[in-house]
Amino acid sequence: LKLGSAMMRRHRSALTVLTALTLAVGLCSRLCFVGWCGSGSRSCVSSRALSKDEQQLLKDWRAQEEVLTLEEAKDKAKGQFVIPPDELIEKAMLYLAKNQYGVEDPNDLADDFLFVGQVIGPLEKDEFIKTLGQFDLKVAFPDQKVRWHDFRVDPYDPSRVWFTARSMGTNLGAIPPLIAEATNKAFESPPEACSLRFNGQGQVVEYTAGYVIDRRQGNTGGRGGLLGPLYAIGKGFPFPEAQPYEWSWQRKLFTWLGELLAGAGPK
């Protein structure tokens, strides 16, 4: 009887383990999303979620349009520039860590450096250093966080690192004459595309910033860079490029004529 009881306990224990493994495998099959995207590559889309026709369509589309995942883009950039992708991304982060609110070391910038914003610029090296030094943003927005993310090397321009910013902060200080007194108003910028391009010596030769990806986000009127926060706190510049986007009269007229000719009638 003791032997039979021991065997029953072992069977129950084995059954419990088998049940747990079955549940784990079932759960994994529901949660795992690593599938194919061509020979030897991975994708965030599970082949289990697609029909065979959809899988073939995806494969053909990727081949025709040269669609790359982040890892594939990184692999493509390898060996195309003297500085490897991982090291280049690290250099971009280091530059921002040192020079985010002012150029601490001018030697980080090449002599032929250019800053090109969506509205501001192009600015050459000396002008960029001077302009950046005129505004102490850490005084105006002491709690500001730029929230940089999505650092990646451009596979078609392997000397360039792209990244995204979604800045936020509160105007708690004055920087006359730009901000005569603190407004205590907060801002949140839309996502902005930025990039740093390097030469072979590791110096920055081009800095692009303030290119808004989705102007509907945040409270800056769809403006990026410094123009956005200033608008959000009620200190925006009075020219159109520093204000929320509006249709020009030319576009309104062109649209009206297009609708008229198309027979839809003007709205």
Structure description:
The chain is α+β, with helices and mostly antiparallel strands and 267 residues long. The protein contains eight helices and ten strands. The strands form three sheets. It has a six-stranded mixed beta sheet with strand order 4-3-10-9-6-5. Strand 1 and strand 2 form a beta hairpin. The protein starts with a helix and ends in a 6-residue tail after the last helix. The N terminus is likely disordered.
Describe the secondary structure blueprint for this structure.
Blueprint: H1 2-31, E1 35-36, E2 42-43, H2 52-65, H3 70-77, H4 85-99, E3 109-117, E4 123-124, H5 125-133, H6 137-140, E5 149-154, E6 157-165, E7 168-170, E8 186-188, E9 192-198, E10 204-212, H7 227-232, H8 249-261
Parallel strand pairs: 3-10
Antiparallel strand pairs: 1-2, 3-4, 5-6, 6-9, 7-8, 9-10
Oligomeric state of the chains present here = single chain
Distance between the termini: 91 Å
The number of strands is 10
**Could you tell me the mean pLDDT?**
85
The Cα radius of gyration reads: 27 Å
Low-confidence stretches: 1-8, 14-42
Helix content: 25-40%
Describe the sheet with the most strands. 6 strands, mixed
State which percent range the strand residues make up.
Answer: 15-25%
Annotation keywords:
single chain; 267 residues; alpha+beta; two-stranded antiparallel ribbon; 19% strand
In short, what is this structure?
This protein has 267 residues and is α+β, with helices and mostly antiparallel strands. 37% of the residues lie in helices and 19% in strands.
